[in-house]
Hints:
globular
Amino acid sequence: MSEKKAQLTIDGSAPIDLPIYEGSTGPDVIDVRSLVSKGIFTYDPGFVSTAACDSEITYIDGNAGILLHRGYPIEQLAQKSDFLEVCYLLLNGELPDQVARRGFENDIRYHTMVDQQIHEFFKGFPRTAHPMAMLCGVVGALSAFYHDSLDIDNPEHRQRAAIRIIAKMPTLAAMCYKHGIGQPFMYPKNSMSLAENFVHMLFGTPCDSPNVSPTIAKAVDTLFLLHADHEQNASTSTVRLAGSTGSNPYACVASGIAALWGPAHGGANEAVLDMLYEIGDDSKIEEFILKAKDKDDPFRLMGFGHRVYKNHDPRATVIRGICNDVLAELGKEDDPLFKVALKLEKIALEDEYFIERKLFPNVDFYSGIILKAIGIPTSLFTVIFATGRTPGWMAHWHEMLSESYKIGRPRQLYRGNSKRDYPG
Ligand code: ACO
């Protein structure tokens, strides 16, 4: 139990003792749960200073540019591991041995197909539907297929649900794309790796199969890996909140997808591409840099800066190299759009305004460029983010249900009318 405590005095009242808990790394937290019995709530819109749960999954130190999954630095995972192994790590707490790794990989392969009824489901969407709208709908619909047989209090059932959804997300993401362009859905090919399979389902047709080079497969796998978890972000907190009522996990993930959709969360890489198109060619870069620095102009360089990372975004460092490899392999370094991106990156990294404010390119800057270079349309970018984030959502849901948990129920500062009588 905690020895440290904080004391709160309200208007000269007797001090209220509040225990302080130490994390294994990172800031301490003050336990304010007893305040409700004194008739007081704490006020923290946006959860800026509030820890809403205990967790052992991911640690971020934004000032030092550190991101750890189960203690392992993201740079090491990106270099030595792969997406599926990181999924296992997030869900189970440890890296798998060879047998566990093979078993997990087989489980994922075995669950990549979706029920044929899901194909029918897509027929209800207009061809013009946003891929995130479709993804949200079909992932929520999975709960109709796996509800009665699922006991969320059984850890094995939770693991099975996690495996099912991690396996099916690339299939569903590709189906969202294929529906939009009017091409037949491609069935997963289980002889392929997860990343190769995803590219196959996106760009393959019954008449032709794409050649997936090791560079492209590595880039797609690393993009998924880098997005796998980011502790209590908005979409993960949404999954936890929905899950805290005992909801079906597929419905919880659908709520996470809805939270991710917004431009303040998952939509930033799309905004990077919109900005690059707006700049158009490198003769205009100087003008846009000036706009970004102008306090009277709301324009900001998309893909620069981060709310949490104030030194550098460790994911951006990893993905920068991969971005260069992809552009080189596809011979796109001289493509006007990517020339603008690379020149913009160089100027911003050398400019005092950006250096002083620690505005480094973030993961979205490079992921947007990579996805565009390999031919993925911008409207699908957030769907790919969601596919990568699914193991994180499931790991947090599983962790929460493994412990004693309370239904998430924030309080409020009420500022409306006091009680009054209905007229007449
Ligand atoms: N371009 C130009 N100036 C910027 C930028 C930018 N992208 N970002 C911040 N600044 C400036 C601000 O004008 C401010 O300047 P001042 O101190 O002279 O007033 C200073 O840098 C600090 O900015 P804040 O808004 O206080 O920084 P905050 O941490 O709140 O914002 C954010 C972070 C929202 C990510 C911001 O940097 C931004 O809007 N970036 C562009 C959008 C983007 O790429 N978002 C994706 C983030 S990654 C993710 O969420 C997965």
